[in-house]
Amino acid sequence: APHPSSGGFRNSISLDQFISERIGYLTRFPSLTLGVNVSGNSRSLSCTAGGVLLPCEDKPSEVFTKLFLGGSAEEMSAQSRKLSLGRSIMDTVAKQTKTLERKVGVRDRERLDQYFTGVRELEQRMVQSAEWEKKPRPVMTEKLPIDPKDPREYMEKVRLMYDLAQMAFATDSTRNITLMLDSVNSPAITVEGKAVSDGYHNLSHHGRSPQKMDQLERIDREHMKLLNGLFADLKSHKEGGETLLDRTMVLYGSNLGNANTHVTTNLPVLFAGGGFKHGQHLAFDRERNAPLPNLFVNVLQRFGIESDHFASSTGTLRGLEMLRTS
User: What's the predicted TM-score (pTM) here?
Assistant: First the structure.
């Protein structure tokens, strides 16, 4: 949503949740919201239509359990009872909210509408979850991952989350994943064989210090190495005569064009897969710039979602084309 620093700001729906509303019913999990070193529920890449932040799942073992270990028959029955109880509570809350709406002013009614939207979204998720609880989960030969306990093991947790994302896509458990790599809450992280003495966030405010920039480069190179591993894993999995990478869009980037000065323009964004024509650098000058949501429209249309607009988009991204197959 525009103007996040203005008074009374209210966020709008994120791209993944917009997609989830339209195709989420096709898979057990409409979306997965993952994170690395995310503190509490205060940061996430995912927002509902009501602007409610969806908390990240930060433990690889819990994500694996959610995806592939459904529990015993007794546990599944207990989960179904919890979902039924949750829906009955949502029904009661909805009735009370409707009654209250008739008694409050316009401004409070808007707040109630935002709240009620969140309740309705949660109720829909519960209904979908109840149906999928009746179906068996995919059987995996991989072992339950061990969660890194030290925040400095940041890169290992990133690797585990990439592995889980690949497994989730390969088993069609979901078609929609966000992963927040939270540098703000990360200390001096461990980069194999390379000395790093400060946290990523502090290093990003390097002030042109050669020492800090050198350490920052080491971390960024490790990030690219792990990302390349994700691409390789997706490419190695065959699906319907194509690779999983051909059928998966990976969007990787930052909310800052220059973290040293907190510039939020000219964002570095890497886009891979999905059957698009890659191997190019699309650069836009100030006079002919393009908002990032233009790329989001390309993504939506590739999903088969009929949409020519998202957020502040002005169309699709110029220069991004599909590969021609013959």
Answer: 0.83
